[in-house]
Amino acid sequence: MLQPKRLMLRTAVSVTYLLLAASLLAQGKFKANGRVKIEGGDIAGARALVYKNGVKERTITTGLSKFALELDLNASYIVSFEKDGYVAKKISFDTRVPADAIANGFTPFDFAVSLFKQYDDINMVVFNQPVGMIRYDASAGDFDYDTDYTKSIQSQLQEAVAQVEKKQKQEAAGAAEIEKRKAEEVKAQQKAEAEAKKQAAAQEASAAKAKAEAEKLAAAEAKTKEESDRRSSAEAAKAEPKADVPPKGPAEPKPERPKLIPRVPAPQRTTLAVAPSQGEDGRRHIEPVLVEEQSRVAKARTIEQQEARPVPSAVEADLFRTEELIVETGKVTTVVKVEVGGKATEYRRVFHKWGGVFYFKDGQACTQLVYENEAMPPQEHLAGATPRGKLD
Question: Structure pTM?
Fold first, then answer.
């Protein structure tokens, strides 16, 4: 009786374990946290298309600057990041895992993707395949990049990225030249407008001054004429002669009574006639004298100024950068060498399978911020340029 009972108990336990594993497989999820960056543009219009086992499952159009994906276990996913006018990039997720690994759970996987503009004269065939593949790593007991796959496309990715960087530098130089020319045109226009305003103000001031001088001169001439007329009238009145009066002659003598003896003849009466003297009118006629006063307004003179030539900016030193990926058992090392002006500096990023990440500069430990600011290029090639582990 005991043996059948033990057999039944073992059978029940085995069935329980199988059901539990099947339940975990059915309900297990793998979480991936992603970020999308658009080089030379904004995130508007970007989208992420999620394909599960070759069938489109959903499309994400919002929140792509920082988003999360819940992926079913034991499935194959392709996530395609796209934007019109930009090169699309794909990330592959292989979520197949052993049944005994599900109970321990998995660390959320962090990744980032950057999209750059599409150029017709650059071959982008390499981006038709996934630029990164994430799968379960039995040695680490967690999900990580497939380094063998990354190595197989690394050279093609680097060649395409180098051509894109060259094109971007040419566009940046052209845009800088255009902006410089526009700034010079605006500056010249502002200077011309200021000069025109200055000349207009000078002309208005000169016209106002000339008007004031003319009014002052007219007032002085009117005053001079008024005084001259007054003097002429006074002199004319003074020189006018009085009416002529004839002078009186001597009184006529009374006649004497005649004497009888001897008879003397009566004296004859003598009358003196004095004719009035005729004289000339001695008034003088004075003609007014007009004197023209010299203009006190000075003629405007043109002053020429020579604009100072802009001082050419200093030439930046040449920068050379090389990057090498060293894959070893238990860790992945990224070696970046940067040479500026003949001085070389070596940076290292060591990612251990157990999750630790360390940074070095010329053999000395440094921070992640120093590594990213000095070792990484201005436009960071996140997923698709250099394989990265989980974000710290």
Answer: 0.42
Structural Rg of the chain based on CA atoms: 59
Its CATH architecture, for the domain 21-145, is Sandwich (2.60)
pLDDT of residue 377: 81
317-357 residue pLDDT tens: 678 899 999 999 999 999 999 998 889 999 999 999 998 99
- Residue environment code for 175-212, b if the CB has 16+ CB neighbours within 10 A, otherwise e: eeeeeeeeeeeeeeeeeeeeeeeeeeeeeeeeeeeeee
C-alpha 69/C-alpha 83 separation (Å) is: 19
Measure Cα distances from 392 to 91, 369, 389 in Å. Answer: 20, 11, 9
What is the 3-class SS of the chain, one letter each residue?
CHHHHHHHHHHHHHHHHHHHHHHHHHHCEEEEEEEEEECCCCCCCCEEEEEECCEEEEEECCCCCCEEEEEECCCEEEEEEECCCECCEEEEEECCCCHHHCCCCCCCEEEEEEECECCCCCCCHHHHCCCEEEEEECCCCEEEECHHHHHHHHHHHHHHHHHHHHHHHHHHHHHHHHHHHHHHHHHHHHHHHHHHHHHHHHHHHHHHHHHHHHHHHHHHHHHHHHHHHHHHHHHHHHHCCCCCCCCCCCCCCCCCCCCCCCCCCCCCCCCCCCCCCCCCCCCCCCCCCCCCCCCCCCCCCCCCCCCCCCCCCCCCCCEEEEEEEEEECCEEEEEEEEEECCEEEEEEEEEECCCCEEEEECCEEECHHHHHHHCCCCCCCCECCCCCCCCC
